[in-house]
Amino acid sequence: MLYNPFSKHPKENGYKSYLEHGLFAFGVGFRLLLSAKFFIWHALLPFIPIPSSLNFDKTILYLEIKRNEIETKQNTKAP
């Protein structure tokens, strides 16, 4: 079988396609960028509040949920 770098990693991690993996990674990255943006603004201008949905505790919770999604997919890999 021909080596395809665009499908090897996603399939090794339980994703059915490059697109499915890409959407997951994009979602996590976007969420982290949004949270980081608010933390940076808050650092520069402390009167700008960090939304509760993007605060430190919620960001950690979000990442734990996403890690659990990955672990579930790895345990039930697509054929």
Please sum up the structure shown.
The chain is 70% helix and 0% strand. With 79 residues, the chain is an all-alpha fold.
Q: Note the overall shape.
A: elongated
Q: Provide the structure class.
A: mainly alpha
Helix content: 55-70%
Topology order in helix (H) and strand (E) letters: HHH
Poorly predicted sequence stretches spanning 5 or more consecutive residues: none
Question: Can you walk me through this structure?
Answer:
- The protein has 3 helices and no strands.
- The protein is about 70% helix and about 0% strand.
- The longest helix has 27 residues, at about 20-45.
- With about 80 residues, the protein is mainly α.
- The model has no long low-confidence stretch (mean pLDDT about 90).
Question: What are the SSEs and their pairings?
Answer:
Layout: H1 5-12, H2 18-44, H3 56-75
Helix pairs in contact: 2-3
